[in-house]
Amino acid sequence: MDRLDRMIALVRRHVPDLCLRDKRQSRFMRAVARAVRPWNPHFQSHYTTVIGATIYLPDTPLSRDALAATLAHELIHQLDQQRWAWRFYLGYALWAPIWRTRRAHWERRAYRVDLLLAAEAGDAALTRRAEQLVPLFAGPAYGWMWGGDRAARDFLAPAVAEVRAGTVQAEEPYRSILAAWRGEA
Predict the structure, then answer these.
(1) Strand intervals (E) in 41-170
(2) Separation CA 185–CA 183 (nearest Å)
(3) How many whole angstroms separate alpha carbon 182 and alpha carbon 165?
(4) Which residues constitute the domain of residue 104?
(5) What is the pLDDT of residues 1-21, one digit of tens each?
């Protein structure tokens, strides 16, 4: 089993009815893409979306390792959806400043996976990935979840520190994700 096969197996343990779909094949995703085009013109080509057991993949091809990392990230969202149900979706639907914190909280939980996997390549890769996340939190792609680059960087800093300290690696489901990534599962 390669990394992707292991990650799919892990996700299916938590989400047995997992479905991977091309965003272009979904009328709903095409409608969402039209609605968000003014601030996120790359929604269809660069962003993965998860609703329930279905992961809608962008039309940009992903390598097997990139898809494995994406599935690991989306698993966190799927687990949060299971736990928080309608509150999770409401937090994404409402953009009022009071909801930014909740949406950003969920995204930070999922991006801990990205930071964790980047750290596998060393501290420089972790630092680089953390900086790549700043515009996602501060900019239009996710609907301006956090106020400005500095505030976004400060908001992400605890997640980076937790990865550096090894505390994320000890928590589930991150521990299982890392084991699947490394081939230890």
Answers:
(1) 49-51, 54-57
(2) 6
(3) 19
(4) 3-182
(5) 999 999 999 999 999 999 999
Give the tokens for residue 65: 């390792």
Count how many domains the chain has: 1
Nearest to 43 by CA among 167, 155, 141: 141
pTM score of the predicted model? 0.93
Task: Report CA-CA distances (Å) from 150 to 11, 146, 158.
Answer: 34, 9, 14
pLDDT digits (tens, 9 = 90+) for 32-68: 999 989 988 999 999 999 999 999 999 888 999 999 9
- Three-state DSSP class for 184? coil
* CA nearest neighbour of 79 among 168, 174, 5: 174
**Contacts (Cβ under 8 Å, ≥6 apart) of 167:** none
Do 48 and 70 form a contact (C-beta atoms < 8 A)?
Answer: yes
